């Protein structure tokens, strides 16, 4: 039995590893690169723990305005989508039953239409309207924020509506009738009965709308005008090459998401736990009871640890300076460099001596050996210090090229980018 | 407390498309009365209630409350309060907020509302429960909160839409007495909807029995039970044995019916049918199970009939004896348990007798479906 079940268990284990690796791997790699000092996001080789990319991020005007625009658009979209979604859902409950299916199809259609199409049509439509109204091109109807909010809301409102419909299906219309019967006006009945009932759904719809708006690219790309959102900025940045400040941003977003999810989970578990223990509903939905959280609630403990970790990270980042480490790395590299230079010099001297002292026949033998021992050092540094020498050496080392390149790539980049430009065509 | 006011339905018709839910309803409910609409589900009694509370406008006819025509007046402006079948307590509000909702929408202060809620909670014997949520209360408690909420609005008319149907039997019986008590204390008009004839008979001053949108009979519980106006009322209110046949002779308010299977039987002509029946008319005769008895003298007579016993049932305070009747139907006889072991008569013929004035003759008509 045991041997039989071992294989499937291993397979399941392997599958889980692959699955979670696939899901979380990129996020982890991205997060790690945010703390590595090389200026291109990479995890290996690990050089120095650094927080400079957060600084770079904080100083990047384009990213910051992008975030700002995203937040403005997000808030606008949330407000507009929640209102439209709620009215759409309420309409569905009021409409003549025979029309209900048709109406549902119509209002749900924006979800099925590609975002690109929505973006273009939003742009074109409001442009037409603007022209019809005789407004200037600088007017509100050409404003990027306005258009982006409208464009995103066209389909995000439908998402919100789905959330509201699900909640409304559990609403007892008798409650509204009871309120009316007790003398409430229809507005009072809506405000005091239906709206409180819809509150959880409004919350989830708002979160959903905000996230959908924040991450939207394909609709926004047509409508943003002079107000690029974060996704637009990121896409533009990637086109010109990136540095780890983007990883830093990713890390911040990941952490915020995890904290949000944990808070939600804690809240949910606490309610469940309390209800399961027969606590009155009023107590559960009431005030925040801190001590209770920690009893048998790992999520809470994790959150506290995370908060502590965050605080200590901030403190650490302020007191710790990666400068020392960077100096060390530089020093280390310089030492290696120097050693190699010495080696090369020594060899060159040796060669010279051999040329001078020994017979021309024997010098030929040595020469043929030389590229093999020299090549790693020479590839990387030879051109730095003695380009003239390289010219001679290069044709010889052509056969050695594969062996050379890693060394050259790594160090040539860092220490002599200009020389690299010259070296590359020659090596090729 | 407010004195109840009259509620009048004048020639009320309510239609939904081609479907007629209520047909020509004429009802006069006096102020301070406990009035019930009794009928099977789907007979239009809830529709009538909704037209009184204002959720429906009658297609035709008039609804008057306290003599005032209610046409065009919304539910929130009528002096009525409705207790819903599912109670419709606001789940997100505390009990006291539920009770005083009608004051809240009028802008009463919190202290004022709290005070009134405590008074009403005392009245419904739920003191100190005001800060709970409705979901934390038991069925009977919710019931009482719903009543308190409706009374808090100080209505002239309280409408109750089968409010006891969700409760278990014991609680239902208890709430019946309680409702009646509350009604007598506050003195307002109660209009009660039910399909349970027990509820209607025990609580009401007057009962309207409805069938498929038509009010068949309005009267006290006693008259509805003992002197039904139609075969439907006779068969719907309480249990009844029906005998089909033709009128053989009429003598004053008594008629001799020649039944299809059990011979000629004598019975009283129902008040509503008196003077309207002729010899030879097809008729239905009804005898209540408790009106039957085992005959001492088995010689044929106009108030005796013989049938074969199919099976018997012991129910505690009564024995039920089922006999073979016409058209495959059973005749039920209920005998009071007087403490003696009864000799089973299964598969034997048994002769029953009854008091002729406890049996009712009506023109043949529609019966209540089982």
From TrEMBL, chain A:
Compositionally biased residues, Basic and acidic residues: 393-403, 419-428
GO annotation terms (biological process): transmembrane transport
CDD domains xrefs: TM_PBP2
ABC transmembrane type-1 domain: residues covered: 67-264
Database matches in Pfam families: BPD_transp_1 (PF00528)
Main location: membrane
Transmembrane stretches, start-end: 12-35, 71-92, 104-125, 145-166, 193-214, 246-263, 299-317
Region (Disordered): 353-428
InterPro entries in the cross-refs: Bact_Polyamine_Transport, MetI-like, MetI-like_sf
Keywords carried by this UniProt record: Cell membrane, Membrane, Transmembrane, Transmembrane helix, Transport
SUPFAM superfamilies membership: MetI-like
Its membrane topology: Multi-pass membrane protein
GO CC aspect terms: plasma membrane
Protein family membership: Belongs to the binding-protein-dependent transport system permease family. CysTW subfamily.
Protein name: ABC transporter permease subunit
Organism: Sneathiella litorea
TrEMBL record, chain B:
Transmembrane segments: none
Keyword annotations from UniProtKB, A to Z: ATP-binding, Nucleotide-binding, Transport
Matching PROSITE patterns: ABC_TRANSPORTER_1 (PS00211), ABC_TRANSPORTER_2 (PS50893)
Domain of life: Bacteria
ABC transporter domain residues: 7-237
GO CC aspect terms: ATP-binding cassette (ABC) transporter complex
InterPro entries: AAA+_ATPase (IPR003593), ABC_SmlMolc_Importer (IPR050093), ABC_transporter-like_ATP-bd (IPR003439), ABC_transporter-like_CS (IPR017871), Mo/tungstate-bd_C_term_dom (IPR008995), P-loop_NTPase (IPR027417), Transp-assoc_OB_typ2 (IPR013611)
Gene3D superfamilies: 2.40.50.100, P-loop containing nucleotide triphosphate hydrolases (3.40.50.300)
Family: Belongs to the ABC transporter superfamily.
Protein name per the record: ATP-binding cassette domain-containing protein
Organism, as annotated: Sneathiella litorea
């Amino acid at each position: 039995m045991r041997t039989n079940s071992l294989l499937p268990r291993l397979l399941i284990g392997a599958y889980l590893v692959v699955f979670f690796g696939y899901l979380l791997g990129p996020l982890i790699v991205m997060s790690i690169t945010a703390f590595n000092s090389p200026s291109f996001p990479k995890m290996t080789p690990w050089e120095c723990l650094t927080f400079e990319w957060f600084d770079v991020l904080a100083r990047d005007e384009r990213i910051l305005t992008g975030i700002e625009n995203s937040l403005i658009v997000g808030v606008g979209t949330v407000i507009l989508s929640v209102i439209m979604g709620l009215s759409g859902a309420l309409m569905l409950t009021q409409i003549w039953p025979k029309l209900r299916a048709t109406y549902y199809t119509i209002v749900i259609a924006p979800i099925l239409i590609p975002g690109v199409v929505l973006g273009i049509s939003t742009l074109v439509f409001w442009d037409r309207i603007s022209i019809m109204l005789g407004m200037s091109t600088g007017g509100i109807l050409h404003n990027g924020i306005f258009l982006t909010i409208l464009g995103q809301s066209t389909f995000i409102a439908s998402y919100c509506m789905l959330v509201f419909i699900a909640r409304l299906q559990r609403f007892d219309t008798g409650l509204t009738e009871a309120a009316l019967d007790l003398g409430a006006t229809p507005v009072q009945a809506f405000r005091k009965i239906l709206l409180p009932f819809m509150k959880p759904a409004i919350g989830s719809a708002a979160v959903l709308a905000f996230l959908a708006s924040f991450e939207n690219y394909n609709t926004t790309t047509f409508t943003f005008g002079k107000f690029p959102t974060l996704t637009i900025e990121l896409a533009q940045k990637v086109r010109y090459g990136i540095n780890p400040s983007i990883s830093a941003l990713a890390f911040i977003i990941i952490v915020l998401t995890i904290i949000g999810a944990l808070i939600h989970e804690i809240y949910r578990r606490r309610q469940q736990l309390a209800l399961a223990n027969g606590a009155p509903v009023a107590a559960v939905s009431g005030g925040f009871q801190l001590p209770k959280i920690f009893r048998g609630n790992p999520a809470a403990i994790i959150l506290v640890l995370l908060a502590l970790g965050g605080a200590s990270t901030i403190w650490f980042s302020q007191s710790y300076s990666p400068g020392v480490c960077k100096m060390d790395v530089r020093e280390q590299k310089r030492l290696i460099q120097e050693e190699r230079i010495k080696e090369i010099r020594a060899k060159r001297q040796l060669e010279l001596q051999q040329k001078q002292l020994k017979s021309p026949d024997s010098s030929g033998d040595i020469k043929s050996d030389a590229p093999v021992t020299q090549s790693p050092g020479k590839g990387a540094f030879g051109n730095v210090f003695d380009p003239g020498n390289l010219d001679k050496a290069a044709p010889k080392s052509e056969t050695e090229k594969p062996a050379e390149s890693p060394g050259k790539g790594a160090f040539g980049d860092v220490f002599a980018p200009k020389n690299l430009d010259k070296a590359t065509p020659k090596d090729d | 407390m407010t004195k109840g006011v009259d509620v009048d339905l004048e020639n009320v018709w309510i239609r939904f498309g081609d479907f007629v839910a209520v047909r020509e309803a004429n009802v006069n409910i006096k102020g301070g009365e406990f009035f019930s609409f009794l009928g099977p589900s789907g007979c239009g009694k809830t529709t009538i209630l909704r037209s009184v509370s204002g959720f429906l406008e009658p297609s035709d006819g008039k609804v008057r409350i306290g003599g005032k025509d209610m046409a065009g007046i919304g539910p929130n402006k009528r002096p009525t309060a409705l207790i819903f079948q599912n109670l419709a307590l606001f789940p997100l509000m505390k009990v006291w907020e539920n009770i005083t909702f009608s004051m809240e929408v009028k802008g009463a202060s919190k202290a004022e509302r709290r005070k009134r809620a405590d008074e009403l909670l005392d009245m419904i014997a739920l003191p100190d429960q005001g800060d709970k949520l409705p979901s934390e209360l038991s069925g009977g408690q919710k019931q009482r909160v719903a009543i308190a909420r409706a009374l808090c609005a100080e209505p002239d008319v309280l409408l109750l839409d089968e409010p006891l149907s969700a409760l278990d039997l014991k609680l239902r019986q208890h709430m019946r007495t309680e409702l009646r008590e509350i009604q007598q204390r506050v003195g307002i008009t109660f209009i009660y909807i039910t399909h349970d004839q027990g509820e209607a008979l025990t609580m009401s001053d007057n009962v309207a029995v409805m069938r498929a949108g038509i009010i068949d009979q309005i009267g006290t519980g006693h008259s509805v039970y003992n002197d039904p106006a139609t075969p439907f009322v006779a068969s719907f209110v309480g249990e009844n044995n029906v005998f089909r046949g033709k009128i053989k002779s009429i003598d004053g308010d008594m008629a001799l019916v020649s039944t299809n299977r059990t011979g000629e039987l004598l019975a009283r002509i129902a008040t509503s049918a008196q003077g309207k029946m002729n010899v030879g008319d097809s008729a239905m005769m009804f005898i209540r199970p408790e009106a039957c008895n085992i005959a001492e003298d088995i010689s044929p007579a106009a108030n005796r009939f013989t049938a074969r016993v199919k099976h018997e049932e012991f129910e505690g305070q009564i024995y039920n004896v089922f006999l073979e009747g016409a058209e495959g139907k059973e005749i039920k006889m209920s005998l009071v348990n007087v403490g003696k072991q009864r000799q089973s008569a299964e598969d034997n013929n048994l002769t029953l007798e009854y008091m002729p004035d406890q049996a009712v003759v009506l023109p043949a008509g529609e019966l209540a479906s089982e």
